[in-house]
What we know:
Elements: E1 9-12, E2 21-25, H1 34-37, H2 55-58, E3 68-72, H3 117-146, E4 149-157, E5 172-175, H4 184-195, E6 201-203, H5 211-216, E7 222-230, H6 247-270
Parallel strand pairs: 2-3, 2-4, 4-7, 5-6
Antiparallel strand pairs: 1-3, 5-7
Amino acid sequence: MTDRQLPVFAHRPPETDEIPLVVSVPHTGVFMPDEMAARLANDFMRTQPMTDWHLHKLYDFVPELGADLLCATYARFVVDLNRPPTPRALYPGRFETGLVALDTFTGEPIWSQPPDEQEIAQRRELYHQPYHDKLNALIQDKLKKFGQVWLIDAHSIASHPTRMHDKLDKHIYLGNRDGLSCEDGWYEFMVGQFESRGMSVSRNTPYKGGYITDHYGSNAAVQAVQIEMNQELYMDQDDPASGPTHPNFSATQDKLKDLFAEMVGKIKEIVPSK
C-alpha cells in the first residue's frame, strides 16, 4: 500500500478569541488513493454513498466563533475515523460497519478485493491514528487552558432505510451515549436550540454517538455530543454534487451559525475566553 498523498485532516484554528469548543467532522473526506479506488466493487461504490457530504463547508463558520474545526480529507471507505481502532461493538446486537467497512449500510459489498488484516492495520496507522492524535491534542490543550471542553462530532445521513434504521423522518439525531458522554443539562440545551429553530430532534435513537463521542466523552471534563443531520435538510440526496448550490444549504447553515453562536455564548458564561 502506498503512503498518504494528502494530509489526513484539515485543521482550522480559532479566528477570534479562543473558546473550549472543538468541532470534529470525520466523514466529510472524499479523497481515495488510486490503488484503493481500483478495488471498489463497482461504479456506484466510486460515488462513495456513505459520505457525510459537504459538512466541511456547512460548518466552515466555526473558527469565526473561536472554536477549532477538524475535518477529514480521506474517504470513509479508506478508514472510518468514528470507529474504535480495535474491534469493539458500539451498538451491541446491531449491525455495524467496522474500522474499514466491507459492506454498505444497505448490504452491498464495497470491495472487489477486500483489504486483509495487514492492510487494515496499515490503514489504521496511516489514517486513523493521525486524526485522533490531532483531535486528542486539541482537546488536551483546551483542558489545560480552560479545565473543560465541549466537543461536537458532526455528521449527516441519508434518510433512506438501511439495515441500521427505517426511513428517517427527523431533522436532527442527537447523541450523547444515553447521558454517558455529556451532562443532561447541556444536552437538553442543544435539543432546545435545534427545536426553537424549527428542526425536529430524536434523542439517542437510532444513533447515540460513535467512537469519537464515546471515547472522548468518557472524560468527565469533556461534554461530547454527536450531531447526525438528515441530508434532506441541506442537499439533494440523489445528487450529492449539488451540495452548496442547493436552495436549502444556505438557510440551514444560517440556522447552524445562529445556534452555534448561542452555544458559544453559553460556554463563555461558564468559562471565559482566552
